[in-house]
Structure prediction request, 150 residues.
Amino acid sequence: MVSGMTKRLSGAGVNRSAARKAAEVAALRRARAEAHEKAVTEAVAVFFDRSGRAEQVRAEAQERARRILADGEEAAAELSGQADDAVMALKRLKEKPVEIAGMLALPITGVRAALTRVDTRDRTPQDAGAPAVAGTDTARQDVPPPLDAP
Prediction:
């Protein structure tokens, strides 16, 4: 190994101009590192801010949706009650449950359920022992009467 070929990189053999340039490079690297850390910190802060706000927006939207669904369910229940009342009106007009089912394209069980809901809703405590709907306690109402019946 030739001793003159390897130089030591120590401060003793470096002139002032080179030392100044090295200090400038070090300062530039520190500035870049600080800018990088500042950018990382900013990105992390944005993440947590937006994540928290997103959760809040979701929670508020879920609450609005819950209220809308509750209002819709209330309106739908009222309309369903009116539909049940229409089934009862047909029954009071002496239409048979099987005929009502045919007119409304409902299964006979749907007609009976509507009649029961109306009766249950309209029943008072002193009526508790009465049959659900007059004439609906007979067996096999889903079978139409014979054609030759008087």
User: Anything to note?
Assistant: The chain is about 65% helix and 0% strand. Residues 18-127 form one domain. Residues 23 and 29 are 10 Å apart (CA to CA).
